Amino acid sequence: MIDVLTQLGSGFLACLHPLTMLMLVLGIIVGLLVGVLPGLTLVMGVVLFLPFTYKMDVTNAIVLLSAMYVSGTYGGAFTSILFRIPGEPIHVPLLWDGYAMARKGQPARALGWTLIAALVGGLLSAVAMVVLTKPVAQFALSFSSPEYFAILVFGLCSVIALGSGSLANALISLALGLLIASVGTDAIYGAYRFTFDLPILADGIEFLVVMVGAYGVGEVLSRLERGFSSKPLSEAGTTRTELPSFSEVMKVKGMLLRSSVLGHIIGIVPGAGATVASFVAYGVESQFGRRKREMGSGVVEGIVAPQSAATASVGGALIPLLALGIPGSGATAVILGAFMLHGIQPGPQIMASSSAMVYTIFASIFIGIIVMCVLGYFAIRPLVKILDFPESIVSAFVMLFCFVGALAIRSNVTDLWLMIGFGVLGYLFERFRFPIAPLVLGVILGPLAEESFMNSMISFSNDWTVFFTRPIAGTVMALAAVTLLLPIIGMIRGRRSGDPTPGGTSIPAEPAAR
Fold this sequence. Notes:
Layout: H1 2-15, H2 18-36, H3 42-49, H4 58-75, H5 77-83, H6 92-103, H7 107-140, H8 145-162, H9 167-181, E1 184-185, E2 192-193, H10 207-226, H11 246-251, H12 253-268, H13 273-288, H14 301-324, H15 330-341, H16 350-353, H17 355-378, H18 380-385, H19 391-408, H20 413-431, H21 437-459, H22 466-469, H23 471-496
Antiparallel strand pairs: 1-2
């Protein structure tokens, strides 16, 4: 434990380097803006900034993207509470009580509770992240290729099972992502696959092109179809934040701790992320909370539970990313891409080979949460004022960043056409309610899964049962099967009870779209 504290202290010192601190503060500011601005989502914002990290030092690149990830779970709370417009799906549960409290003439109080929830949930999760990542990585050092393949399968199955909408659509999305990942030169035998005699495809399709196209261009095309909103929203010029007293915080300390722990645990589950954490934490309070009958009427519990869980999920999602190389959310999938752009594969070895970088990232999460809350407290008026930007102008800048990003890696015009093609694909996915996350994670994790599978076949004489007979691999494969079976069982039960939702539980109507 002393060694961990020593390395964490060194990480805090590294964060004080001017360039690292600049990247940290810039990431926090951009993450808050992404949460507030119409037309942008947290994952899209991180994707758009990924190309700009290509020439950076890897530590500064990850610090920048991680800071955006942290603050993105908080920035959208402003519009949810003040305007009933969730900056992210994360903040849909928050507005049920946050906006209700604002309508009672207490917007400053609602914003104050949101800030406290983000601060406490984030810091508790950061502590758990530091404590748990190294033991998880040390345990994973005993893994061989069958265990890695099983973990990758579990990660992909989790994305499918925890995605919203049709399970069949999620499976199709994942299969398409795996197909895209197979384009290029086979890593084991060196044979060309699906290249159509195009030299640019011999190196495969860059996952950055897929992410930027599907998330960035696809979202702009979707909003173009719906029509851009031109109405300014920033009419809260006197908005401020009113922090609760210490005694008020202590009255809800049990609920705050419970929601933070729940959010952290959900964050660890690959594919879950902050949105699932937010909804689950709100649902737990609605079912078992002390004021469960008052939820939705503007009570503190309805604000604190989803926000603390959402921010706490960040630390949880970084554990499987760093210790196992498995992204726990859409944003960590992009951060995994940043690691791979710099030639680093997160996993068990990273704690030994790059411990200084890892603990600098840990320290940046602590500092970033504090900086985020300070900026959220003092800069709320300019943040809300950003809503005066027309959505069409924001979308134009998004397209500009997309084109820059597509050219950043290989400087090839073909990548621009590929990006546009994946943009159209992302639009069609949005149009026909296919989830994009399985597609993107299939592109990123597909080559890793294939390599682990082929190495297992070579090492164990083509014995495919090795994935089920080895204790750890077999257990993880069983968990992967469970993650697929549970939503199927939920859909069957829902149909029998006449409930059309996948899990058999009613979901409140979503608020007005941005």
